[in-house]
Amino acid sequence: METIQEHLCKCINCDTLFMDENPQIGAELYPLYQDDNGLWRTKYDIESPYTIHTVYADTPVLEGEIFEDGEESFFGCDQCKTDEYLIDL
């Protein structure tokens, strides 16, 4: 089973987890594993001071999307189409 370490963020609007493309300085790295379908998942439960809910082991982790906003671009939730609800874990 392949494992990696990634920074994570969560959309608090739709509860989706993402690999964080713009982590805060000193953000924690979390272990992920790739399942038989090629989807990355959390390896352990995650207790973060930034969220009120535990992120449980085996939760899918997506890659998110880069959106264009005029001359600027930003990393955001591909379901909510914004970065407004993303919080670092």
Structure description:
- The chain is an all-beta fold.
- It has one domain.
- It has strands spanning about 5, 10, 15-20, 30-35, 40, 60, 65-70, 70-75, 85-89.
- The strands form two sheets. It has a seven-stranded mixed β-sheet with strand order 1-4-5-6-3-2-9, with no helix packed on it. The chain has a two-stranded antiparallel sheet with strand order 7-8.
- Strand 7 (about 65-70) and strand 8 (about 70-75) form a beta hairpin.
- The protein is globular.
- The chain starts with a strand and ends with a strand.
End-to-end distance: 24 Å
Number of domains: 1
Oligomer: single chain
Summarize the biggest pleated sheet. Answer: 7 strands, mixed
- Give the overall pLDDT as a whole number: 90
Structural class comes to mainly beta
- Poorly predicted ranges (pLDDT <50, ≥5 residues)? none
Question: SSE order in H/E notation?
Answer: EEEEEEEEE
Count of beta strands: 9
Please indicate the percent range of residues in DSSP E strands (runs of 2 or more).
Answer: 35-45%
The dominant shape is globular
Work out the radius of gyration: 13 Å
Strand order within the widest beta sheet: 1-4-5-6-3-2-9
How many DSSP H or I helices? 0
Helix content: under 10%
Quick description:
This protein is an all-beta fold and 89 residues long.
Tags for this model:
single chain; 89 residues; mainly beta; 7-stranded mixed sheet; two-stranded antiparallel ribbon
Summarize the SSE layout with pairings.
Blueprint: E1 3-6, E2 8-11, E3 17-19, E4 30-34, E5 40-42, E6 60-62, E7 65-69, E8 72-76, E9 86-88
